[in-house]
Amino acid sequence: MVAGSGSFRCEDEQCRSPVPAVSASIWWSVVPQERMAFNGRTGVPSRIRESVVANWVTVCTGLVGVAVGAGFRFTSDRRAQYERVLVLAAESGTAPITEDRHTVGMAFEAVGADAADQAVELSVEEMAALFRVLWFFQRAAALYDSLRLFVLHRRITRTRALLLESLGSMIRIWDGYLGRQIVVEGGGPVSTEESARSLHRLAEEYRRYERRRRHAAGSVR
Fold it and tell me: Where are the domains of the chain?
């Protein structure tokens, strides 16, 4: 190397021209494959850019898959809810529940609606049929509760409305029946307050649904 010249001479016979001192510019010219290029400017290496793009594609693909899966799950759950409501509604119109309703209903109707203060006397068989009817309403109330939304618990959804529409007349009639005092034949009064709680709650929900429907019909007019 020549002192003060800032350059050196190659000892090889093939290299006679002076070469500038090693710097960043020489390194970049020697290793062109390591140049960083992004939109024509120095920046992120192309291999890193491709990795980032691949990661974003993977993330977007995963999000689309989650959205599709959630939509399929929601549709399947909604279809299952409708099926459960329709099965219970069909059960309300077939034996043995229809036979129990007829057996106990005849005893209540025999007293008459005008004698609301008069106790209704039921035989042991009629009492058993009455509690089977109340058990049906407990199942209906449990199904109604399971159809609520995760956030808006009191909202009457379409499946809830279908359940109330299917059992509405039955709920109204038996809610009136269970507002009267009941005595067992040859015995004393029988309390149905606990067993009839689900029925009364369904009746209150049906009245709320009827008010909402009348309000909606009035708004349309």
Answer: 47-220
Strand order in the sheet with 182-184: 120-122, 182-184, 189-190
Residue 27 to residue 24: CA distance in whole angstroms: 5
Kindly provide the b/e burial profile for residues 24-56, where b requires at least 16 CB atoms within 10 angstroms of the residue's own CB.
eeeeeeeeeeeeeeeeeeeeeeeeeeeeeeeee
SS3 52: helix
CB contact at 8 A, 175 and 203: yes
pLDDT value of position 75? 59
Strand-strand pairing, 120-122 and 182-184 = parallel
Please, are residues 126 and 101 in contact by the beta-carbon 8 Å criterion?
Answer: no
Give the Cα separation of 92 and 85 in Å (integer).
11
pLDDT score of 39: 47
Inter-CA distances, 154 with 92, 113, 150, 208, 213, Å: 25, 33, 10, 10, 15
* Strand blocks (E) in 107-206: 120-122, 182-184, 189-190
CB 209 within 8 A of CB 148: no
What are 8's strand-pairing partners?
19
Q: Which residues of the chain have pLDDT under 70?
A: 1-50, 52-76, 113-116, 150-153, 219-221
Supply the pLDDT for residue 189. Answer: 87
**pLDDT score of 48:** 66
189's tokens: 């009064």
Q: What pLDDT is stored for residue 142 in this prediction?
A: 95
